[in-house]
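Form P-L/3: holo structure prediction, ligand NAP.
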Amino acid sequence: MDNLENQAKLYGEQMKAIVVTDEAEGTAGMKLLERPKPDVAMLSSLSGANYGDVIVQVHASGFTGDELKWPSTWIDRLGRDRTPSIPGHEVAGVVTALGYGTTGLSVGDRVFGLTDWTRDGSLAEYVVVEARNLAPLPSEVDFTVGAAVAMSGLTAWQGLFEHGHLRSGQRVLVHGAAGAVGSMAAQLARQAGAYVIGTGRAAHRQTALDFGVQEFVDLENDSLEDIGSVDLVFDVFGGDIGSRSTGLVREGGRLVTVAGPPEVRPVNGLAIDFIVVSDRAQLIEIAQRVRDGRLRTNIGKVASLDEAVAAFNPTERIKGKTIIRIRP
Ligand SMILES: NC(=O)c1ccc[n+]([C@@H]2O[C@H](COP(=O)([O-])OP(=O)(O)OC[C@H]3O[C@@H](n4cnc5c(N)ncnc54)[C@H](OP(=O)(O)O)[C@@H]3O)[C@@H](O)[C@H]2O)c1
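OUTPUT (holo model):
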């Protein structure tokens, strides 16, 4: 038995979780192990510093490929090593316990949202989350869909409307429009009355059109510069594509990016890079649009927790997002 498993046995009840300990190993270093299960006693202990937290029994979990490169996967808010870490920051499940200072949720509620970056995540049977980072998940929306839409939906919403100030009639360029964030951004931008130009690989054309883009630029064969000027660029790539996109931003326009600080900025416009935050009101709006069919997700594979390590280390390319269904 490995040290981590020994450590876990010292505590009370156990749960299954995916654990990482070594950044250099990436997803190949993921292991399915037993970890201490969060319980009510832990939530109510003052030393636990769990003000505002709830425990969620996880039904579905989403993991973003880049997570294992984020510093918050490896260190806590004080910069201390927090390994072994449980990754996965998108969650859908059922609330099983409330800590001090939680509002708007109760035991038994179906919920979805983002777990805290600097704490253990949702690739586990249970997770502790700040209640404010969760919203009710309507009974008509499956847990798998809830987990898939949390990060991509919030990122798209915040990029377009909070940071991008998108308005009806504007032209928006959405990079990676067949991907998780891009497909959400394409759908939301169309619903807001914008003219949406999407980009991606040649093979993504039909998927992007199905998500509502009115024009598609195949970055492998078409010229980005032929698009003409746009009011908003929603960038998920950074690098050369991000830099070249700044030249398309019209005067007073914006380039919004989730790919880190831009190397080049628009001459007469703004460049804004941001990290998504959970927001209950936005999650409620996103869930409503999923429920009434206005938003579709692009789930490519659903696997169990036992299959998760293999699912995140695929031998062949998976189209769409992988969601781990923790409970059937
Ligand atoms: N800052 C934040 O708060 C935040 C939040 C969410 C996501 N992100 C980041 O945003 C990025 C996108 O996330 P995502 O979940 O949308 O990823 P995703 O689902 O993989 O979507 C990216 C899309 O772009 C395509 N693509 C990648 N490189 C390309 C290239 N050179 N030319 C044309 N198409 C290309 C991908 O195709 P293939 O699958 O064929 O490569 C995929 O369709 C990630 O880096 C993620 O970490 C940041």
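COMMENT: The pocket of NAP is lined by residues 64, 66, 151-152, 155, 176, 178-182, 200-201, 204, 219, 236, 258-259, 275-276 (CB under 6 Å).
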